[in-house]
Amino acid sequence: MAPVTHHTAPTRFVEADGVRYAYRRLGTGGPVPLVMLQHFTGNLDNWDPALVDALAAEREVVLVDYPGVASSTGTPAKTVAELARQVIDFTVALGLERIDLLGFSLGGFAAQDVALVRPRLVRRLVLAGTGPKGAPGMHGWREDIETHARAEVPTGEDLLYIFFAPTETSRAKGVEFLGRFLARTEDRDVPSSLASRDAQYDAVLEWGVPDHSALQRLTGIQAPTLILQGDDDRMIPTKASHLMAGLIPDARIRIYPDAAHASLFQYPQEAAADVNAFLG
Fold first, then answer.
1. Do residues 135 and 159 make contact, with C-beta atoms less than 8 angstroms apart?
2. Contact indicator for 135, 242 with CB cutoff of 8 Å
3. What's the pTM value of the predicted model, to 2 decimals?
4. Sheet holding 225-230, edge to edge
5. Structural domains of the chain, ranges and CATH numbers in brackets
6. Chain-centre distance of CA 236, in angstroms?
7. How is the chain classified by DSSP, letter by letter?
8. Dmax over Cα atoms in the chain, in whole Å?
9. Alpha-carbon span 254 to 79, nearest angstrom
10. Which of 23, 71, 76, 202 has the largest CB neighbor count within 10 A?
């Protein structure tokens, strides 16, 4: 029997507090499953199949749609704290008592909060293309990035602009990513709604309100942490990753060259190897 891959993993559903969470589960092995939290407006299909399959080759991987996003029912969270609580509810519904947690972008905001309010749940933490609450440069996105990120009908060009560096080499890797993430044809997830987009941007803005004292929250993260980032992220400043690395007690950082927001989609094999080594 052929192994289940990102392209063939069935969409499943589990209920918690009246919300029907859409999720996919694939891979085997490893001491605990790796739960992956998606970026702004992203759904199950917005993950890079090359990244997910390389991670799932060594461990169980769980992907999920947040409430009110794509195929999950419920009301989308308007704050990161609310989103983190929804993620915790999902893990309880699946019976997951101990997880590794990877959060990308907005998912990284939620992952920080999950690690802080439910430390016994998170064994190891991976923060990719993200930043800390209240840090400089976190209060929303610059105008050109926001225009592409909030497009009513996002295009490949919007993703290339947001996710990849404005170099020929990075954009070429971006085009390869677009081909991979569009390759699944059966049981594709539905697009996120404009209402969920607006709720999530409320959460992004609330998280980023300048608040120097909020940075001290990072010192409370108990889980060993791996921080992944591109060297020229125009959506969430790369310096925010260095700030997190300095404040989280047990943190290490990896910066990928010639890369922007989605370095883990530009370097899926390298990122998966770094994550698997860290989790292993």
1. no
2. no
3. 0.98
4. 12-16, 19-26, 61-64, 34-37, 99-104, 122-128, 225-230, 251-256
5. 12-279 (3.40.50.1820)
6. 13
7. -PPP-TTTPPPEEEEETTEEEEEEEE---SSS-EEEE--TT--GGGS-HHHHHHHHTTS-EEEEPPTTSTT--S---SSHHHHHHHHHHHHHHTT-SSEEEEEETHHHHHHHHHHHH-TTTEEEEEEES---TT-TT-SS--HHHHHHHT-SS--HHHHHHHHS-SSHHHHHHHHHHHHHHT---SSPPPPPPHHHHHHHHHHHHHHHS--GGGGGGGGG--S-EEEEEETT-TTTTHHHHHHHHHHSTTEEEEEETT--TTHHHHSHHHHHHHHHHHH-
8. 54
9. 28
10. 76
Contacts of the segment 163-171: beta carbons below 8 A, 24+ positions apart? 163/260, 163/261, 163/262, 163/265, 163/266, 164/259, 164/260, 164/261, 164/262, 164/266, 165/230, 165/232, 165/258, 165/259, 165/260, 167/258, 169/258, 170/258, 170/259, 170/260, 170/266
pLDDT digits (tens, 9 = 90+) for 76-104: 999 999 999 999 999 999 999 999 999 99
148, 244, 169, 271: CA torsion to nearest 10: -110
**Closest by CA position to 6, among listed 41, 53, 43, 71:** 53
Six token digits for residue 267: 């370097």
CA distance 71 to 191: 8
